Amino acid sequence: MPGLLILSKQADAYRSLLEAANLPDLQILDAGQAGNFALSEIVFGEPDLIRAQLPGLGGLKWAQSTWAGVEPLLDPSLRRDYVLSNARGVFGGLMSEFVLAYLLLHERKVLRRLAAQQERRWDATLTGTLRGKTIGLLGVGSIGAELARTARFLGMKVRGYTRASEDCEFVDEYYHAGRLLDFATGLDYLVASLPATPDTRRVVDAALLARLPAHALFINVGRGSAVDDAALIAALQSGALAGAVLDVFSQEPLSPAHPFWATPNVLITSHTSAPSFPAQIAGLFIENYRRYIAGQSVLYQVDFERGY
Amino acid sequence: MPGLLILSKQADAYRSLLEAANLPDLQILDAGQAGNFALSEIVFGEPDLIRAQLPGLGGLKWAQSTWAGVEPLLDPSLRRDYVLSNARGVFGGLMSEFVLAYLLLHERKVLRRLAAQQERRWDATLTGTLRGKTIGLLGVGSIGAELARTARFLGMKVRGYTRASEDCEFVDEYYHAGRLLDFATGLDYLVASLPATPDTRRVVDAALLARLPAHALFINVGRGSAVDDAALIAALQSGALAGAVLDVFSQEPLSPAHPFWATPNVLITSHTSAPSFPAQIAGLFIENYRRYIAGQSVLYQVDFERGY
User: Fold this and answer.
1) Contact A129 B268 (CB under 8 A)
2) In 3-state terms, what secondary structure has residue B162?
3) Which of the four, A219, B158, B200, B201, has the lowest number of CB atoms within 10 Å?
4) Which CATH number fits domain A3-89+276-293: 3.40.30.10, 3.40.50.300, 3.40.50.720, 3.40.50.1820?
């Protein structure tokens, strides 16, 4: 009977959900008892909390992350003698709502209209529209694919940049390594949903930003490490870029001293674009647990070398 | 050869578009020459501008409105001896973007996050989501149908209230006269896209608003006459309703003295939800002109009695 340790800020919610699922042969261990750490075969929780306990998890065979990003567990100095699976396929819907919210805030001139209302001023400035615009998706994993589907539905043209994959039917045009600058040229919106890996480090740099038109909007829902902060700030300050919506940062929480807080046309959303709702993530764990005890491979296994 | 008079604030744009279309047998008359009014068989433009010239349009057979709403021409004291067609089928996309923009502004807590940014404060307050919410469409014409399609795509449940029609496949549940309060009960979002007719006058009243939960949001993209302003203000002031997004008003522009400007949780968007872009409206005119000269009935003919 495999023992499960839940290492999560929402451990109580997860325990209730898993108990209600009445999973065969599963023993949920009490994380409050130190002796249980060595006994657990399965761990389910946030990567940073798992990392802190990693040395003591003597019997660990499988860890299920509640997050998509698992960087805390990718440090080459850490053990890799277990199966690590991440949360995938559940964030696309929320991410799409997030991206839509801010694309529309921009096109519909919502903040300008709010300011007019403060002055009791009827402001019939024409609205913009998403229709006919070109969105570039930097990364087309499960999140990017859902963004593509939503963008297509709303009449946008969709470019996708990936290492090699071309799996998403809603991408109109794919670009791969070596064509990053062509990918960026003339985009109305650039949305990054890249994982943090050595390959994605600072891909949004001055050269890429220079290819975007001055009316373009950049949205980052992936990882902060994909952005050269200084280059982004320079582009916004010079007016070479119309705006940036930043949900993720190289260091979180973002320090109060960071210049992003007051850079013109930056909106900061404090890593709220797609929270891990326990009911969804527990569903993923339950599916993977059934596979695990049946001796099948779990879904969304992370390649420690590749980083996702 | 039928003579056309263009009576629009964007007359120059329309003239260029129609000239470029090279329509057979069409003579575009100069509205600057008074003698041309009596000669014109076709008028194309804004209903208020057409109304002002109506007595002098001796040869008028067909008027194409650039707007969806044609109230200025519905006054029973005015002549009705001509075919009137309105603009329809072109606003649904923009209206959907408008409604989405404000539903997402609400769910994603965008204004709260902006306030946190002003204080350089990392605010990880959980986001809401559109998924699983119930939207009620008060009116399911061409605009409501497109709203339904978009809402369904984003995972909402869709209720539709109409006089009798049940034409839209994206409405999950229809309600008709006599069941207005059932329709409203428990909605997360109420969106009115009703034309201004005697039947729709003040349908959004205290009794209807009382059926909405306190977390509900009301959006009006139809006509201001559908709302009992005092009842709406009372619901918002008492906290019985979470918010209202008002694009249209009984009197436009809204007077600076109107209490809406400063009612808590009201957002005013100054009739910008779906502008008549000349290229789209000209396309509609062109299609209807081809029908007209072929002796066919034009699309979107208005029933003067019904009012749309």
Assistant:
1) no
2) coil
3) B201
4) 3.40.50.720
> Which residue's structure tokens are 């001023």?
A121
Distance CA A63, CA A104 (A): 38
**Which residues of chain A neighbour B252 with C-beta distances below 8 Å?**
122
Calculate how close chain A gets to B182, using CA atoms only, in Å.
29
> Could you report the predicted ipTM of this complex, rounded to two decimals?
0.91
Q: Are B117 and A268 within 8 A, CB to CB?
A: yes
Sheet containing strand A42-45, edge to edge, reads A27-28, A3-7, A42-45, A62-65, A83-85
pLDDT (tens, 9 = 90+) of chain A, 308 residues, equals: 899 999 999 999 999 999 999 999 999 999 999 889 999 999 999 999 999 999 999 999 999 999 999 999 999 999 999 999 999 989 999 999 999 999 999 999 999 999 999 999 999 999 999 999 999 999 999 999 999 999 999 999 999 999 999 999 999 999 999 999 999 999 999 999 999 999 999 999 999 999 999 999 999 999 999 999 999 999 999 999 999 999 999 999 999 999 999 999 999 999 999 988 899 999 999 999 999 999 999 999 999 999 88
Which of B133, B156, B147, B254 is closest to B191 using CA atoms? Answer: B147
Q: Which residues of B touch A104 (CB under 8 A)?
A: 97, 100-101, 104
- Interface A-B, measured as beta-carbon pairs within 8 A, has a size of 122
Residues of B annotated catalytic, as ranges: 223, 252, 271
Nearest CA to A99 out of A145, A161, A163 is that of A145
- Domain ranges in chain B? 3-89+276-293, 92-268
Cβ neighbors of A236 (< 8 A, separation 6 or more) are A243, A244, A263, A264, A265, A266
For strand B134-138 and strand B83-85, is the pairing parallel, antiparallel, or unpaired? unpaired
Task: Locate the chain A residue with the closest alpha carbon to B104.
Answer: A101
Which among A177, A192, A98 has a CA at the least distance from the CA of B127? A98
CB atoms within 10 A of CB B81: 6
Q: Taking Cα atoms as reference points, which of B57, B60, B65 lies closest to residue B82? A: B60
**Domains A3-89+276-293 and A92-268 agree in fold:** yes
Architecture category of domain B92-268 in CATH: 3-Layer(aba) Sandwich (3.40)
Whole-number CA gyration radius for chain A: 21
Is B104–A107 a contact, with Cβ atoms under 8 angstroms apart? no
Q: Which residues of B touch A268 (CB under 8 A)?
A: 113, 117
Tell me how far apart the terminal alpha carbons of chain B are, to the nearest angstrom: 29
